[in-house]
Amino acid sequence: MSEWLVLTIAMASACAVVLTIAVLSNRRLADDDDPSETPDVIEYMTMMIGVVYAIVLGLAIAGVWEGRSAAQESVRLEAQALHEVSARSAVYPAEVRDRIRTDVEAYVAHVIGDEWRSMTDHGSLTEEGTRLLDRVRADVTEYKPRTDHEGQAYQPLVDQVAAVDDARGARGQNAGATMPGVVWFGLITGAVVTVGLIFTLQIRRTFRELLLAGLFSVLIAFLLFLIWDFDAPFGRGISATTAPFVDLFPHAAER
């Protein structure tokens, strides 16, 4: 199901529920009911709970956005380190250089294809990706430099392969959801409480009051959807992309 369809259904459902409850509650009010009689303490508590929940929502959005940014940064670092391996291997003999570049491109093609789908669907890396990276590492580390120039390039190449491995590990750690279940329980419970408290203010069936109640519920639904969408850095609409790999290895992307 499309993320935008999920968002539309969530906002429409939240709005419909709130407006239905508001209308049904209004029918049960007595003719002499006076909305101005709402105690000041209720208005104060409603305002304070709304403020506290807004802070919690803001922190949750900031947290999942930071996780998404970290995931994208790990992809960039991995792609850049692979590019350095491919570029610095130019000092090696043609046979060794071509083998390194071929294995690097094979690894990149797997990452942006099968491994990316595995992260999206299962939140994990693949064994084939590990095997291909090990092959790149073997290409670099098992070659014995024959000249001083090759010797000077050897250690930086080894370091870049280590950087690839480190960035790949970070990418794997960021592949799954980042928000614990208990946090989701608090967010959803807080949304129900915050929206429910607006009924203590004795909403009437005027267009203005119903519109504001509906817009408030839609806003809460949208913010929760935003957190849910960011919570899977590689799995949903607003997620990390393969752009760094595609930009640096256009031929591998065409495989």
UniProtKB/TrEMBL annotation:
Keywords: Membrane, Transmembrane, Transmembrane helix. InterPro entries: DUF4239 (IPR025333). The chain crosses the membrane at residues 6-24, 44-65, 182-203, 210-228. It holds the Pfam family Bestrophin-like. This is DUF4239 domain-containing protein. It comes from Streptomyces atroolivaceus.
